Amino acid sequence: MNKDIKERPITREEIIHLLKDDRESVAESLFLKAQQEREKVFGNKIFIYGFVYFSTWCRNNCNFCFYRKSNQIERYRKSPAEVVEIAKQLAASGVNLIDLTMGEDQKYHNEDFKTVLDITKTIRKETNLPVMISPGVISQSLVDEFASLGTEWYALYQETHNLRLFQQLRIEQDYDERMNIKLYAKRKGMLIEEGLLAGVGETVEDIADSLLEMGRIGASQMRVMSFVPQKGSPMELAETPDRTLEMKIIALMRILYPYALIPASLDVDGIKGLRGRINAGASVVTSIIPPRSGLMGVAQNTMDVDEGGRTAEEVKHILNEMNLSVAPAEEYIEYLNV
Ligand code: SAM
Ligand code: MD0
Ligand code: SF4
Q1: CA 278 to CA 251: how far, in whole Å?
Q2: CA spacing 20 to 30 A to 134: which of 149, 153, 186, 309?
């Protein structure tokens, strides 16, 4: 399989035009084209990712996030043994990758990430699965350490590629610092995931710029998530966008980058949001969380988790109904290695 990004078949102006055109027929034809493109590369196979949000402590104050430092909420930090146990449980359920996600927990920064590096090493060994880390911004020397452990992925989302909007969302954070560490990880041989938020005040021009930038930086995985308002945050009363926007962006990503891994995140609308995102051209299902593990999601921190809606089993069932199936572990590893 060739995961290099193909030449772009559509221009910035065409993207803008397609995003502005709100006829249902336009969206439908984008979805159809995106499904055809996905099928050419991935056949009827979909990858699924286990999500382990192991510390909800954070030193940052992103305006859109429930876990921002200033929000007075109950937080947890799972012990290494618990994290490893949950990862093993996810592996046994058939996920293709373990995503180790954390807030920018100062405790881990103070100890140079010793615990997180240990957890990563153990999980790679015990599950034999590729690992993605989503730790926020870290230093170059830490990227070196994760890369030398063989950690496959570094996920770090810019949310927008409009500098002014970035500063409103990720307040007191540095756009270039965030972008540069992602590019550094790529140079060190890690795969990178880029992401954008829909419905946070961006224009269609901003979205077009993000779509093109994601290709330019060589992101092997790219995502879009609709903004979900969070209790106690400055954007609590802002509206969540109509989902057609997210679906059209997923389809455009697929059409622009046929080989890209593009998530259908269960974290936005729970399990009921799966079909629409797959039909828009997504090739990965993310945010699979074991029920009653005490773990949370991000945008939807509890939706469907304990009810068992966000499990590999439930996802497999729905994909099968759609004549799709979850790829075996070896097939995902093969995809990454081509
Ligand atoms: N703390 C790390 C970081 O910010 O990079 C990793 C985890 S962070 C919680 C992961 C992503 O969740 C964010 O980059 C953002 O795209 C998404 N997210 C957070 N809050 C959200 C919300 N209210 N609605 C939709 N997506 C959200
Ligand atoms: C997900 N909501 O898996 C989670 C998360 C972090 N790498 C991913 C934002 O969709
Ligand atoms: Fe912290 Fe990440 Fe939430 Fe920002 S998005 S407040 S860095 S957990």
Answers
A1: 10
A2: 309
